[in-house]
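Can you please make up a whole protein chain along with its C-alpha cells because I've never seen that pairing?
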Amino acid sequence: MEVMALVGQSGTGKSHRALIVAHQYKADAIIDDGILIQDGKIVAGHSAKREASKIMAVRRAIFSIPGHADEVKQALKEVNPKRILVLGTSENMVHKIAKILGLAGIKKIIRIEDIASKEEMEKARDCRIKEGKHIIPVPTIELKPHFSGYLIDPLEIFFKKPQAKRRRLGEKSIVRPIFSYYGKLLIDDSAIAAIVDKVATNKDNISKTSQVRVKRIRESDEDRGIDVTLEVTMQYGSNIPATVGEIQSEIKIAVEHMTGMIVNQVNVVVKTLTVGA
C-alpha cells in the first residue's frame, strides 16, 4: 500500500480538496480526522469533528483513543487500498498517523499552499472560524447515519462572502462536497420530478401523478434542502393513509440516494379516485 499525505493548517481547506487530490493521484482511500473513507463511503473510524473538546478532537484525529486505531487497521486489511491519502495539519502529524495505523512510510507530501491560493485558504478559514463550518469529503447520504443531528450544508458557502453573524457556541455544521471531480453538478427540478413520478407510479394502486413541484429551501443564502409536492390519482378502495405514508418514505429515500439532496417534506395530495381497471 502506497501512502501519500496532504498537509495544511486547520481551516485552510484540506478536506475540501481531498477528493480532488485523491483523484488526481489515484488514491482510492482517505484518512481524514479519524475516519477511513473509500469510494465515497465511511468505512471505519469516528470523526474528530464530533468531539466536544479540542483535546479529544486531537486525540481522535491521531488515533490515540483506545480501540480507535485497531478498528481502522482492521478495516484497512479488509479493503486493502492500493494508495491512501492521509490528511493532517503538519508533517509530524501525518507521520504519526501512518505509524500508529501501521502504514508504510509516506512517499509524497502535498502542501495545501501548493494547490490553493492565499485567497481560497482565507475564505476557508473564515468559514471555519465565523460560521463553524466543517467538511467531511463524502456525500450527504453517507453522512446522515454517522452524523445524526448535525446540520448538513452544501459547499457553496466557500464561494460566498462570509457572514458577519457568528453562530451560537457549540453549534456545528458538517459541510459535504457537491462538486464532481471535473466540475459542477447541476440537477434540474424536472429530473427530481421524474424520480418522484417513477417511485409513486410503481405502486399498484396509484395510476398517475400530476403537478409534481420541487421547492428549494434557502436560509441566509444557504441551501437547506427541498420540499416535494405531488398530486396522485389512486384506485378506489385503497388504504389512503397507508399508501401515502409508503410513497412519502420511498420518494424521500430515492431522491436523497440518487441526488444527494436533503428532502425535508414530501406532500401528497390525493386528487382523484378511480374505479375499475
User: Anything to note?
Assistant: The chain has two domains: 2-175, 189-274.
